[in-house]
Amino acid sequence: MQPLFLASLVSLWLLSLPSFVANAQLVSGPGHSAVIPWWKIGNSLHVGNVGNDSAALSDPDLDVSEWYSIGSKATLMAAYLENGARSFETELFRDENMKAYHEHLRPAFQEPWYYRSKFTLNINNRFGAYYYQLKTHGISSRADIYLNGALIADKNVQAGAYTGLTYNITSKARNGTNILLVRVYPTDYNRDFALGFVDWNPPPADNGTGIWRDVELKQTGSLSFAGPPRVNTKPYFDGDAAIVDVKVEVVNLGVQSVRGEVVCFVYDHKGKEQWAVKEGVSLAGHGTRKVVLGFLLRKPAYWYPKQWGLQPLYSTSCNVTTDLHLSDTTPKVRFGIRTVTSSLNPFNDTTFFINGEPFQVLGAGYTSDIFLRFDEEKVRAQFQYVLDMGLNTVRLEGKQEHDRLYELADDMGIMIMAGWECCDKWEGWSYNNEGSGEKWKDPDYAIANASMRHEAELMQHHPSILAFLIGSDFWPDDRATRMYVDALKSLDWDVPIIASASQRGFPALLGNGGMKMDGPYDWVPPNYWYTDQLGAAFGFGSELGTGAGTPELSSLKRFISSPYLDVLWKNLTVGLYHMSTNVSSFHTRTIYNNALSARFGPPRSLEDYLLKAQMMDYEATRAQFEAYAAKWSAERPATGLIYWMLNSAWPSLHWALFDYYLHPAGAYFGVKTGSRSQHVAYDYLSRSVYLINRSLAALGPCTVDMELLDLNGTVIGNAHTTTTQLSPNNSTRLFEINGIEKLKDVALLKLVLKNQAKVLSRNVYLLTPKLDTLDFKNSTWYHTPVTSYANFTALDTLPQVDLTAKAMVTNIQGLETTAKIRLQNKSVSPAVFIRLNLVFFNELVRLFSGEYEETTVEVAPVHWSDNYVTLWPGESLELETRFTYHGHYTFIRVHIDGWNVPKQRISIDMRGGKGSWIGGQMD
Ligand SMILES: *[C@@H]1O[C@H](CO)[C@@H](O)[C@H](O)[C@H]1NC(C)=O
Ligand SMILES: *[C@@H]1O[C@H](CO)[C@@H](O)[C@H](O)[C@H]1NC(C)=O
Ligand SMILES: *[C@@H]1O[C@H](CO)[C@@H](O)[C@H](O)[C@H]1NC(C)=O
Ligand SMILES: *[C@@H]1O[C@H](CO)[C@@H](O)[C@H](O)[C@H]1NC(C)=O
Ligand SMILES: *[C@@H]1O[C@H](CO)[C@@H](O)[C@H](O)[C@H]1NC(C)=O
Ligand SMILES: *[C@@H]1O[C@H](CO)[C@@H](O)[C@H](O)[C@H]1NC(C)=O
Ligand SMILES: *[C@@H]1O[C@H](CO)[C@@H](O)[C@H](O)[C@H]1NC(C)=O
């Protein structure tokens, strides 16, 4: 790191920002609640002589102009970035900058910091009795809260990143200006209940400390709701009707007993008000009552995961009145009519059922941003990728994020497997000798209980929730299990509660979790998945993958500078900062690189390395997802798979299906191919072909064509099968492929599934006469070694092909553009692993220096019908791409290359509008 950089960081730290204009009154009547809209953040450096004095820090006239400014939430690091230069994040993530930067900042994060907000209340008794409550949703990881200098809660109460509590602040609230002060304490992942990253990536310098979720203020009359409505739905009359129960908890804040009326409105999935249900309540002073309002819904519209149907969302909101005055109101929450259950099959594997249908989980593990920033558009884009890849589930391991994430999942039809995280404080059990968390003491149970209650309250009504895993690598002890289960039940939890994501043990109350965590987490060959060992395709794999997820060069260049890029392909066994941390088994790419060099030949350049890596990634993720999909109807079914992982918290070199900049590459298209709804897949081990239908609809008549081609373009095996139909939600073994004994070095296998003339799935493999040999008895928890590798080096003999490419815009809808790319292989050799990359491009841009430069911008997110494809001699293929075009750039181009495909680029002509093909141009 250059000294200049450090100096600029320090000055950033002290940067002053214009202070906000204190807005009008925050809440203006009973039933009104508002998020604290902004905060000023400072530490001892900012507060100077005021020191740690909460009264002085709460003085409305205190000069906080030098403090940082944020919106409603940000961890300390997020605030720091928000108040810095825009390019700062790029600088921070580049090379090993973050290491030096963390060293520099760590001392500052070892002391308390202050979040301070000023707001106005206009207190009057126009509406009768009035009460004010402050609601937290978790502050990482401990905080003292003061209102106008008076302590509301201390760090032993407001403890835990998920502890959401409601405080009665009526006697401390002032008519006029109020000062809310929150002193946050340093987070330690082993001591505190926080959001850690285990070995996934370096921890943020502040360990995620701060107000990472909104804090709310609410005004009510005497009667108040303790949380949002909870909803239970149950099919009735064979599903022709559903019983809907809306449940709310009413609290009497006053000391006098009060009579009131609760009324809940229910809106149908088109948003039309349909039903009002009401009930009178009578509460003693400080009393609490649960009110259940039920009704029968005729002809309900059922909510399904995306691949199975629609996502109709009903909604409800409730009011409570006293003497005809509104006393409180709930937010409007949405719910779906659906059931989720699970059971253990005779093999002790968990199977989920949605609306009674067995539901094979194909999903991946989600991570929050490294600084816990929540960018809704980015989450939406990632969820669109989840669906585009054909996945149906996202696992949150201790990364429960915000309500908005669940709303997106509800809207989009993605199932969420939520739960607590492994390895740190969350799993501080006496019998856990692997984790680093401090063992739990009495007060810890209270923190975990409050966390569970709060998260249950947040999630309960969302139809996207598949399960809550109260343990990950380890199961909770009996006391914690009882407490978690009671908390969930008391909040009307009606989807599965799973003891843990592994089978090391289980609590008696819940029994076996029915999930395995037997690896791998690093590269294994494709045939691994078809064996009957460890992570192979049987049972429910709660986190497993091949370490794939190598970013393409355009993304790599954004976080690794040129000299370091060389290390990637020249030093194949060194530790890399952008892999897992240096204490992890995944700090190097050694296992992966050994396989790459042995199978495809040692890398000759960075480009060569990256192309081989994409081929490895594609092959690896496709095989994993395909094997699970293929074995769904096996004697011991593959009931689910969570790929480790979906995304990454910062720019990372592995363990993700797309990179931090949302560029989809080999790993992505491997999954997308392997997880097609109607698919035809090759089992490397039995050399047979599987027919897969993941939808709930039967399909027929269908045909399957198989062709085996050697590298000279000679067909050495083929088959054509007519099948009458594809059974719904089923997988069948079709036939063994022929001709494979004629395979000398490398051959290409093509499988095509058609319905009438429509191609449902086209799937190409590279096959070798000898498979990789697995050495299962020397397996570790994270991988299985290979004693001899498959040999793909004959691919070097393939001549360069003549590939023509043309593009045409087919649809423009607002900013959404769709284009078709037509590829044709004019050679007698196959065109292997053709890679298409979409870029925006400005011919010449004048720089500040006066020079001109071309600017090329990678398009992301981008959707491709298929990519990294292989074409037979003479074969044509049309691909579709969909992207957002803002018009800031003059040209849109597709860069094309591949294993034996000369580089070329073609333009997509936006000016011409729809309808004309534009041809390619060699580079
Ligand atoms: C609060 O202040 C407003 C304006 O200054 C005043 O009208 C109102 O009566 C005050 N409320 C109470 C409860 O004193
Ligand atoms: C962050 O947590 C780790 C334990 O996981 C601890 O060693 C470290 O001191 C913490 N950092 C800060 C700034 O408190
Ligand atoms: C809330 O605070 C008010 C004002 O101090 C008090 O009268 C009331 O009893 C409190 N209610 C509860 C439930 O603590
Ligand atoms: C709740 O009260 C608000 C404000 O009076 C009103 O707009 C809303 O329609 C009421 N909703 C219900 C469910 O009664
Ligand atoms: C399933 O789990 C139960 C309880 O641990 C055990 O008794 C039984 O043997 C297991 N069954 C199989 C097939 O592993
Ligand atoms: C990479 O290898 C080169 C040549 O062997 C060596 O000079 C260099 O120090 C290595 N770099 C790292 C980071 O290990
Ligand atoms: C391809 O052709 C070359 C030259 O005719 C021959 O040497 C080679 O064995 C052939 N390869 C295969 C796989 O048939």
What is the beta-strand fraction?
25-35%
Topology-level CATH name of the largest domain: Immunoglobulin-like
> Which stretches of 5+ consecutive residues score pLDDT under 50?
1-22
- The total number of structural domains is 5
Highest CATH level, the class of the largest domain: Mainly Beta
| Helical proportion, percent range | 10-25%
Structural class: alpha+beta
Query: CATH-wise, what's the superfamily of the largest domain?
Result: Immunoglobulins
CATH architecture of the largest domain: Sandwich
User: Radius of gyration in whole Å, from Cα?
Assistant: 29 Å
- Major sheet: size, sense and barrel closure? 10 strands, antiparallel
Oligomer: single chain
Query: What overall form do the CA principal axes indicate?
Result: globular
Number of strands: 50
Report how far apart the termini are: 37 Å
Structure, explained:
There is one protein chain. Strands 41, 42, 43, 44, 45, 46, 47, 48, 49 and 50 form a 10-stranded antiparallel beta sheet that branches. The chain is of the alpha+beta class and 923 residues long. The model is unreliable at 1-22 (pLDDT under 50). α7 (376-388) packs parallel to α8 and α9 (442-459) runs parallel beside α10. The protein folds into 5 domains: 3-123 and 139-210, Jelly Rolls; 223-335, Immunoglobulin-like (Sandwich); 340-498, Glycosidases (TIM Barrel), CATH 3.20.20; 526-797, Sandwich (Immunoglobulin-like); 803-922, Immunoglobulins (Immunoglobulin-like, Sandwich), CATH 2.60.40.10. Bound molecules: 2-acetamido-2-deoxy-beta-D-glucopyranose (NAG) (7 copies). Residues 106, 109-110, 186, 188-190, 203, 207 line the site of one 2-acetamido-2-deoxy-beta-D-glucopyranose. This is Putative glycosyl hydrolase. It holds the Pfam family Mannosidase_ig. Belongs to the glycosyl hydrolase 2 family. Residues 781-901 form the Exo-beta-D-glucosaminidase Ig-fold domain.
